Amino acid sequence: MVGDIIDSNSAMIAQLLKQIGHNVCRKVTIADDFHLLVNEIKEMSQQADVLIINGGLGPTVDDLTAQALANAADLPIATHEKALSHLQAWGNKRNQQLTPANLKQAELPQGCDIIPNPIGSAVGFSLSLNNCQVYCTPGVPRELELMLNEQLIPELNKQNDNFLTIKRFSVFGIGESALQEFINQQIPQWPEAISLGFRAASPLIELKLTCTSKNDLPLLDILSKQLTTILQAHIIEEVQSKPRPLQQLLVELLISRKEVIATAESCTGGLIASLLTEVSGSSAAFEAGFVTYSNRMKERMVGVNHTTLEQHGAVSESVVKEMVEGAIRESGAKYAVAVSGIAGPTGGSVEKPVGTVWIAWGTASDVRTQKMLICGERKYFQNTVAYRTLDLIRRFILNDNTKPHYIKSLS
Fold first, then answer.
1. Mean pLDDT of all residues in the chain?
2. Which of 219, 294, 328, 329 is the most buried (most CB within 10 A)?
3. Portions of the chain given CATH number 3.40.980.10
4. CATH top-level class for 246-409?
5. Is the separation of the CB atoms in 77 and 109 below 8 Å?
6. pLDDT tens sequence across 177-208
7. Count of C-beta atoms within a 10 Å radius of residue 204
């Protein structure tokens, strides 16, 4: 441990364990020191029911987990046939010859059980030590996440005798403190039996209701319905497994309706189109993106009238409205969004300060517009504009005419 890598895996593990009622009582980060690792495994296995060791399963000399666990359990290291078969299949798929370093990943504590890794070269493994179930997982975040969700969490959930039910909602467009205050106002007598929690995962907030007694399940349902009613379209989904990004929900909504969208962007430089197209399957929902950064390109690419630009300026209601109309006309898409603003830190004026943005969205026959002032550094401005634009067209498609909090506050 030298401080050059941020440990996000521990947070992921703790969050997933908490959802099934397991509390993490201790988390330790160990340097690549064999004796420290062996001693820590011995000590923690005597204190815990479950020990998850993350990382150190790779092919290099500083990957020490397998040997350290074998040493702590007083077991020999041996070639595990299932691990070897996995490695061979992994190599064959990539037309890659396995090296002695690769084969090291099949040398595991004798008698351990394999935890499948669907995408990586290193399998996980587990064994019992001092009446503690020890699970070893790879440090690559994507591999860890898959193995947790597909293998470890279901296995641990079977062993969990505690009753726990959690309802989770993804919320967009209202900040954490404002959300807490709003809930306090609308449901002032929040019952202690249901725990209310918040987790910021920009640009979304996860709202979580936790119930620990079967007798309180009706109350959990009542509160869930109340929150859905008062928060309206700020709730973008009730999370069933893993929260989905706003852009994914929009793409899936468009696909379900067999409809497509186009974008015309100035101040965001193509970010909205990029967010949409990062979603798998977006080709069925996204028709075209026009990055019209200059006035000349606004005229040439989406047909903004030269007179409109001269009279009102690029950052104006009239211009973004014509950008939407032009994007629909040029692409044939049913929906379009357009943005034009001053991202800063330079370029503002008294009439149009830095942070000013006009957003337009809708169809050829119904274009909506909104002016906002978004204060913050350039990247924050662009991200906020992009996500608010996605939210506004989502609400439009759903025929939801309620005003989001960020329009009411104009900030």
1. 93
2. 328
3. 9-159
4. alpha beta
5. yes
6. 899 999 999 999 999 999 999 988 889 999 99
7. 21
Length of the chain: 411
- What is the pLDDT confidence band of residue 23, given thresholds at 50, 70 and 90? confident
Q: Which amino acid is at 254?
A: L
Task: Give the C-alpha separation, 228 to 234, whole Å.
Answer: 9
Q: How confident is the model at residue 4 (pLDDT cuts 50, 70, 90)?
A: low
Residue 306 to residue 314: CA distance in whole angstroms: 10
CATH topology classification for 165-239 = Alpha-Beta Plaits (3.30.70)
CATH number of 9-159: 3.40.980.10
- What type of residue is 312? H
Cβ atoms within 10 Å of 241's Cβ, excluding its own = 7
Residues forming CATH 3.30.70.2860 domain(s) in the chain: 165-239
What is the tens place of the pLDDT at every residue in 304-340? 999 999 999 999 999 999 999 999 999 999 999 999 9
Residue 80's contacts (CB-CB under 8 Å, 6 or more residues apart) are 106, 107, 108, 112, 114, 123, 125
Q: Which two tokens stand for residue 263?
A: 């974008």
Tell me, letter by letter, the H, E, C secondary structure of the chain. CCCCCCCCHHHHHHHHHHHCCCCCCCCCCCCCCHHHHHHHHHHHHCCCCEEEEECCCCCCCCCCHHHHHHHHCCCCEEECHHHHHHHHHHHHHCCCCCCHHHHHHHEEECCCEEECCCCCCCCEEEEEECCEEEEEECCCHHHHHHHHHHHHHHHHHHHCCCCCEEEEEEEECCCHHHHHHHHHHHCCCCCCCEEEEEEEECCEEEEEEEECCHHHHHHHHHHHHHHHHHHHHHEEEEECCCCCCHHHHHHHHHHHHCCCEEEEECCCCCHHHHHHHCCCCHHHCEEEEEECCCHHHHHHHHCCCHHHHHHHCCCCHHHHHHHHHHHHHHHCCCEEEEEEECCCCCCCCCCCCCCEEEEEEEECCEEEEEEEECCCCHHHHHHHHHHHHHHHHHHHHCCCCCCCHHHHHCC
